[in-house]
Amino acid sequence: MKKLAICAMILLGSLAVNANTGNDVIIVKEIPAKTICIKNGMANDVNTFFSNATSLFFEVYKPGTKADLVAMIDKLKAVDGVENASAGTINGDYYAITLTLKTKKDKAWFAKAFAAAGLEYIKINNNEIVEVAKL
């Protein structure tokens, strides 16, 4: 009788777990390569954030080979208004870049600069990934 009671508890317990977890939906999205990732509390308002920045620290997810990263930084340096662009540390698949500007620019300028460097997507804080052109 004890074995039957234990088996019934296990069976009913697993059904209860399955009934509860059947409604949970977990969505995992793969981050596209060459995605800009910005983690900054001030970036929640993108208009203000980009228009006040003369120095921007961001990471690029899977930029490609070392030559691709160097080419990306060279393209950023070539954009009118950029004082300097430099590579920082590597954290797994994320490569840090610091972009220093001569003067403050708006978000449209940043979108054009990122696109010129071959960066197509951007993820700001915990927001959805969007195309740089739709920034």
What do you see in this structure?
This protein is of the alpha+beta class. It has one domain (about 35-135): Ribosomal protein S6/Translation elongation factor EF1B (Alpha-Beta Plaits, 2-Layer Sandwich), CATH 3.30.70. It has four helices and six strands, in the order H-E-H-E-H-E-E-H-E-E. It has helices at about 1-20, 45-50, 65-80, 105-115, and strands at about 35-40, 55-60, 80-90, 95-100, 120-125, 130. The longest helix has 20 residues, at about 1-20. The chain is globular, with a radius of gyration of 23 Å. The N and C termini lie far apart (about 65 Å).
What does this entry show, briefly?
The protein has 135 residues and is α+β, with helices and mostly antiparallel strands. The protein has 4 helices and 6 strands.
